[in-house]
Amino acid sequence: MAKAAKKTRPRVVRSVKALREALAEWRERKAVIALVPTMGALHAGHISLVALAKKSAKKVVVSIFVNPTQFGPHEDFSRYPRPIEADLDKLSEAGADLVFMPDAKEIYPDGFATMLKPTGPASVGLDDKFRPGHFDGVATVVAKLFTSVMPDIAIFGDKDYQQLQVIKTMARDLHLPVKVIGAPIVREKDGLALSSRNVYLSPTERAAAPVLHQVLKESAKAIAAGEDPEAVLSRGRAKIMSAGFKLDYLEARDAATLAKLGEQPRKPKVRLLVAAKIGKTRLIDNFAV
Question: Which end of the chain is more exposed for a tag (fewer CB within 10 A), N or C?
């Protein structure tokens, strides 16, 4: 049997000038354009974003840029995985049309002096408490991607839920003409949310990691059944720590604003969010109540 023809890799551009030239041709044909921003090290979760983008738009741009401004001084920027060839092969199979892969100088040229300082969902005592300045870097680079690509649609994963709310708020507040869509979390069979950082887990740590999802599911069910949220979360925190994690937070928040429960005049939809470190690897997850 003849082998199936290998799919052609998407075009790769490395400068904003080349990016805009390529996009101009699509816009002349009135093509709806979707953007999928990534930091590379692509897995099935990222590919699901590309698949959703292809259903929503005629042309799909995927950006690959490990953004230095969203890493803290003691975080894993230098060791963040960068398997470029494997990423491009995956994007070929997924049917991406264009890959924007700039270097740091292209995004932050000499003399760069403008950083966004988001508040709202970016200052609610979740990841912002443990990663100071992180969302400044996220909002700045995503704003630059939005103004460079000017997509009709942008797809982000629900796993980085606080980030998603920060980006939705930023796009709204700056009147950026892009529809920001959150895509469902892709999980392993045991519930662990897919993440580029999962490769850092030792076998023992990997075996313990699904407890985050287990606690989220159990806590959501108990809260939905009418149990006191703080009592439920207290049990959950103890279970996570007993599994070997150093817990940053396990919280129940307003799903839209990420405000603490009880700070709203209405009864909000609730989202549970967790961040915890096992060994040297920090994992995050969330779950709707």
Answer: N
